[in-house]
Amino acid sequence: xxxxxLVLAVLGLAAGITLPFFWxxxxxxxxxAALLVVAGALSRRLVPAAAALVAAVVLVxxxxxVNGYRNGQGIAWAVxxxxxxxxxxxxxxxxxxxxxxxxxxxxxxxRRWDLRLPEGDGDVRVWxxxxxxxxxxxDDILRAVGVDDGRERWxxxxxxxxxxxxTDGEHVAVTRCSGFPQCEIQSLxxxxxxxxxxxxxxxxxxYLGVPMPDRGAPQRALAPWRASFVLVGDDxxxxxRDLATGRVLETGSHQDGSTAIHGDVLVRSTxxxxxxATNVQTGEELWSRPPGDGRASLSPIVSTDTLxxxxxxxxxxxxxxxxxxxRLGERLRTLNTLTGEERTAKLDTGHGLVEVLGSERxxxxxxxxxxxxxxxxxxxxxxxxxxxxxxxxxxRDVHVTADxxxxxSDGHTWGTGRGxxxxxxxxxxxxxxxxxAAQDADIRTQGDALVISEGSDEELVQRVVSP
Length: 467
Fold this sequence. Notes:
This protein is mainly beta. It contains three helices and 37 strands. The protein has helices spanning 3-17, 27-43, 46-71; strands at 75-78, 84-89, 92-97, 100-105, 111-116, 125-129, 132-136, 142-146, 152-155, 160-167, 171-179, 182-189, 195-201, 225-226, 229-233, 237-242, 248-253, 259-262, 265-269, 275-279, 284-289, 295-296, 313-317, 326-327, 331-336, 342-346, 353-357, 368-371, 381-385, 388-392, 398-400, 404-413, 417-426, 432-437, 441-446, 449-454, 461-465. The strands form nine sheets. Strands 13-12-11-10-14 form a five-stranded mixed sheet, with no helix packed on it. Strand 6 and strand 7 form a beta hairpin. The longest helix has 26 residues, at 46-71.
């Protein structure tokens, strides 16, 4: 029966290599390895037995090797140990160390410059505005740093900076606090760092009219919103104030409806769903829309009374609820904030409640729609983006940049069974760039890049997806 060892060896290889493609478990790999060992033992010859043992070991190690190789595909570079990525925008990556900041090339990770700062473990956030980085270091000193050389340009008086909210390219509006609730808006000159004007703020005024994209947005260093004015005030009333001078351009009440700001445009909604957009600098009405044909949806942080602007457009829905949980039906309807022009895209999600989202900087692209299985009836989650639909099991979050879309879902990984899988796709071509086994990983948008993080604290590993 000399053929038995050979048959067992063939069955072992077939089971260990082929079955994992169809059976979401590590069991076929171990079964195949066991059959190889048995085949070697039955051969009763040293060389075949040794070869079978080596093949069994290789088969057991193969899933880790193959998936490790695949996890590295589509990754531009990994953040070096001891550094943490704080910004990835317009070709520049900025990492933090205990003793300062380091500028790197976003595509390659190559070091460009270093900036030494006082050592500390406190909260650090970095924003980019054109050729300036605005840095809130752990010593609460707000600094401006040159993008090209990393040289410090100016410092502002130490205060707790809560939000770097709005910029017109020459000024930036920031929310700074000496102690809660003693907070104020400061309009700073980007050239000198001097305070041009200031005003006390409370409640929703802390956000300066910025349409927060999600509930966790205030804890992130979002790119400052582009506008020529800000909304300041309290929980009752607001003022639209010119960013350069502080001049009051328009006033209103939160009781009358919600607002959105973008460029020179102020959009106001009423409780019955009517919309009106004006150029606050000139007072000219740009467009209006009567009630009865959909409501503009709110930003996910509903306490701000701000209309959502994913990708810089308004989203119409039947109820006008926040964009992280609304009903759209079979169409995605959006309005251009400058013209009021409506665009419609067909949806085929099959779910009632959906989430609408966009990149951190508005690009005037069509927003992305995520439909989760809220009813837990076994239907897959669906992501509608750029004319394509991605169906996956148990999608938790979707993260997008101008040209990439990434998400984490339950998936089948060869040789290890089911688990969390991170995928990244090119939004133009639809080509999959990354498939990363994500047992201890997540993916996040970091400005213009998607970043895969594994581990935590001192053992954190961050990988930048090819931009």
